[in-house]
Design goal:
Blueprint: E1 7-9, H1 10-20, E2 25-28, H2 35-40, E3 48-51, H3 55-69, E4 73-77, H4 81-84, H5 87-96, E5 100-106, H6 122-126, E6 132-136, H7 142-154, E7 160-166, H8 167-171, E8 173-175, H9 196-208, E9 212-216, H10 219-223, H11 226-236, E10 240-242, E11 257-260, H12 267-275, E12 278-282, H13 288-291, E13 302-307, E14 321-324, H14 327-334, H15 350-358, H16 379-392, E15 399-403, H17 407-415, E16 424-425, H18 436-446, E17 451-457, H19 458-463, H20 468-474, E18 478-484, H21 489-498, H22 513-519, E19 523-527, H23 533-542, E20 547-552, E21 562-563, E22 572-573
Parallel strand pairs: 2-3, 2-4, 4-5, 5-7, 6-7, 9-10, 9-12, 10-11, 12-13, 13-14, 15-16, 15-17, 17-18, 18-20, 19-20
Antiparallel strand pairs: 1-8, 21-22
Length: about 600
């Protein structure tokens, strides 16, 4: 029987394989070692290429695309500096478990190792920050490698995969069959199965607990376990605390939702964790920003950890029961074995919930629908009002917030109420400044029907501001809110608190961001008064085009609570008693 598989160049095989994997959007920047791949793109009209202004932007866009859609994000770059410019974005995705496939061109295999022009060992460089990586030197290996890269990126704990393809492999020809290139069926490691004895131990701890707390992490979103977590919390009446990346995994409006834990988490949440007798960690890794001083972390609590990555169990916090496996699958095992809600005594008695709610006190100001206005504009006002505007317009479920890193990131987590999964996109583990603008491009490309907001500081925004031209070239209606306080805000706050107000290198000069946006063809407005926030936000959201708002806010405001390095979770620096944000003669 004649072979009906077509003969294609390596470059054509790459695009055909990506199309077979369902890829419709890629983010990249051309260069000499990847030009054959770009030349072949014209034969694949179903794939849209977004031309970035810097390769770091491409990796963040692929990341944002993956976070917003749940699919694999794809980015491309040439060899040498093109490949190394991806590194920060790859590390960002690795720390936050984001599925990405990064494709780089490489010099011809004949000159590998000779320090050829724009040659760099990108597989060696990215070895610690990728889930896996490959160097491909033959055209016939491109399809199997790409297909395996997609499998690796998605299976188990997700993460970024890099595929480096030499120029001669791109130019050579080979037979192509998408089906024949399929990787072997993924077989989970034997450890990735919750043991029945551990299940029994977990149930015993759950039933005997009087003060349990669920710690809701990013794994809930990645596993698709939202319904199971809600059923578990409601069935056992257990309050839920969220990590930064777990916000939206459990609905904020739910009466069992406590809010965010950790360094800048709510005081009542951290106190509840410290006073708990059982912690149930759902898809989270006990990051240092969550635990504070480990020697004093939840001292009286038994701990159950459910995670798909065995290496995370007992890495930071010693636990009493480990349930290794996909969170959704493990909860599906647990739920039928627990007493039905109607026929059991309440595990988390109303006294436990009353105790937590009573501990809120004045800190519950963030629950006030109309945050007080004292004539000054604070970042909290801005973020609170963006949330209010979306809520009142009935667009909250269709709003995606993409933040940069710093004070505004923490204020967003405190003042914007996330009820939907994948509604907050932010760099958690690596804390990458410059993330927001390009990641929002990826999010909007993935979800064009949603309202996508960039919330960035004046410092981080300047790191990737060139991507404004990418927004304009792609015709993307992205809303941009710049919180301008004239400082690298979080650095300044640390300097104020721990370095005797020595503001070394934290004051920052910025351009007129509205004029900068205008130079890229994007409309914008300045806002410095609270009364103008919601009208301008509405104008941006309904404009149908990209729109930038520069919010001139109080310069020396701080994020509270705050846990100092080395302090225990309950040892929080609280908002000053006479803080002007809370002082008002008349509430709105």
């Amino acid at each position: 029987m004649a072979n009906t598989n077509p003969t294609l160049t390596g470059s054509e095989i790459l695009w055909a394989t990506l199309a077979g994997e369902g890829v419709t959007t890629v983010f990249g920047y051309p260069g000499g070692a990847i030009l054959p791949i770009y030349d072949a793109l014209r034969n694949f009209p179903t794939i849209h290429h977004v031309l970035v202004r810097h390769e770091q932007g491409a990796s963040h866009m692929a990341d944002g695309y993956a976070r917003a859609s749940g699919k694999v994000g794809v980015c491309l770059a040439t060899s040498g500096p093109g490949a190394t410019n991806l590194v920060t974005g790859i590390a960002t995705a690795m720390l936050d478990s984001i599925p990405m496939v990064c494709i780089t061109g490489q010099v011809s295999s004949k000159v590998l190792g000779s320090d050829a022009f724009q040659e760099v060992d990108i597989t060696g460089i990215t070895l610690p920050i990728t889930k896996h990586n490959y160097l491909v030197t033959r055209a016939e290996d491109i399809a199997p490698t790409i297909r395996q890269a997609f499998q690796v990126a998605q299976q188990g704990r997700p993460g970024p995969v890099l595929v480096d393809i030499t120029k001669d492999a791109q130019q050579a020809s080979a037979l192509f069959s998408f089906e024949d290139a399929a990787p072997a069926v993924h077989r989970p490691h034997p450890m990735l199965k919750a043991e029945s004895s551990a299940i029994r131990q977990a149930i015993q701890l759950i039933l005997s607990a009087k003060k349990p707390v669920i710690l809701a992490g990013h794994g809930i979103v990645e596993s698709g376990a939202r319904e199971q977590v809600i059923a578990f919390a409601e069935g056992q009446q257990i309050p839920v605390a969220s990590t930064l990346l777990g916000l939206g995994a459990f609905p904020t409006y739910h009466p069992l939702s406590l809010g965010m834990m950790g360094m800048h988490g709510e005081s009542w949440v951290n106190n509840a964790i410290q006073n708990a007798d059982l912690l149930l960690a759902f898809g989270m890794r006990f990051d240092d920003r969550v635990t504070g001083n480990l020697a004093h972390y939840a001292p009286d609590a038994k701990k159950i950890h459910i995670d798909i990555d065995p290496s995370e169990v007992n890495k930071n916090v010693k636990v009493d029961v480990a349930l290794i496996g996909d969170l959704k699958e493990v909860l599906d095992l647990l739920l039928p074995l627990l007493p039905a809600p109607a026929s059991q005594p309440t595990v988390a008695s109303s006294s436990w919930l009353r105790e937590i709610n009573a501990s809120k006190g004045d800190a519950a100001v963030r629950d006030i629908i109309n945050l007080p206005d004292n004539g000054h504009l604070y970042a909290a006002h801005v973020i609170h009002d963006i949330w209010r505007e979306a809520r009142e317009a009935g667009r909250l479920e269709e709003t995606v917030i993409v933040t940069d890193v710093g004070q505004h990131q923490m204020w967003e987590a405190q003042y914007f109420k996330h009820d939907a999964p994948r509604s907050l996109i932010t760099s958690g583990g690596l804390g990458t400044m410059g993330f927001a603008l390009p990641a929002a491009i990826g999010a909007k490309a993935a979800c064009p029907e949603k309202d996508v907001w960039v919330i960035a500081g004046d410092g981080g925004f300047q790191m990737t501001a060139s991507e404004l031209s990418t927004i304009q070239q792609e015709g993307l209606a992205i809303n941009i809110a710049i919180i301008n306080n004239g400082f690298l805000g979080m650095v300044r706050q640390w300097q104020e608190t721990f370095y005797e107000k020595n503001y070394a290198a934290s004051p920052i000069l910025s351009p007129d961001f509205v004029m900068l946006a205008g130079a890229h063809g994007i409309a914008g407005e300045h806002v410095s008064e609270r009364k103008n926030v919601i009208p301008t936000v509405t104008k941006a959201r309904t404009s149908g085009k990209a729109f930038l708002i520069e919010f001139q806010v109080e310069k020396e405001d701080g994020v509270y609570p705050m846990i100092a390095p080395g302090a225990a979770l309950h040892e929080m620096v609280r908002r000053p008693v006479h803080d002007p944000l809370l002082e008002t003669a008349e509430d709105e």
